[in-house]
Specification:
Number of strands: 2
Order of helices and strands: HHHHHHHEEHHHH
Strand content: under 5%
Radius of gyration: 21 Å
Oligomer: single chain
Structural class: mainly alpha
Distance between the termini: 41 Å
Shape: flat
Amino acid sequence: IELVVVVLLGVFGLAKAWEVVVIGLCLVTLSLYAVIDRPAQTTRISAVLKTIVVFVQTVGAVLSSGNGLLSSSSSLHTIYGVLQRASLTLTGLGCLDLGQLGLLWLFVALTAGPVLLCLALRYAPCQSQGMRRRAEGAAGTLGYLFVFPLLHHLLEHLSCVPDPTPGAHRSYLDAAPWIACGSDEHIALVASALSVLLGIASAVAVTSTVAWRAHQASEREICDDRLVPLLDSDAMVMVAEHSPVAFLWHTFRAEAWWYEGVVFTRRVAIAVAVATIPRGSVFTSGVLAATVAVSLAAHLHFRPYIDEVAHRMEITGLVAALIVIQIVGMMEQA
């Protein structure tokens, strides 16, 4: 269902006014995907879906880092538009005339709002245990999808570039060059962005704690004869039913249960590089290529996935991302 929605978003190239409607429909689809009981053998499907999500968002961020690159190539502009919709990056919100601060909080509401709503349902009174578990699963699924565009958008409000006028000592926000850095409007944007980033860091800390406790519980229970490994006797697989957010680690071998943290670190590093390094800088492609190359080396070294197809899919995605980064870098220098 997720793949069908992503394809439809790209094929139809919906007008800006319809994007919010499509985002709402996509949220409903993702929520249904999270709460409906999944088949027992979902290791490969989950791993491939996560790889596709991370790859699409990475390529979209790389294309957005170019200075005038999209305007010089109509094909790249079309591809970038498809990737924007596929990774749920909203455009066209400026037509609402809310001001930069209002647009920031609207973006936060459209991305983090559904996650918070699912968490509210989780802790609502008079809810059954199954409903609470499914609400947690929906929050985890939506959070995994939205964390990258949200981080990227928030970090953009921290990057200032100097005024190119000779003798000028002013600087302006790179993402909104009409806003002077240090002005009241910029300070309000930075304070809002930092508050949301602190909330994201807290959510990541809580999720990491849940993963650690689930891993500890799985290690205690794996010796029980009633527990049968999902794939083979060589991989001590953590059972997905232990936690509603087990999709974060149940695709990995038990020895590499923590590897989702490596993937998240790569996503954060890419978001930081694209958002904070000035557009068109010669350092952008180098930093992005180094980040992806280190991730590829780590993946080849640890081989974290249980499923071999998922392992090859991840390698293909990382190599393809490296190729895209190199192509974008060469086009910027041309």
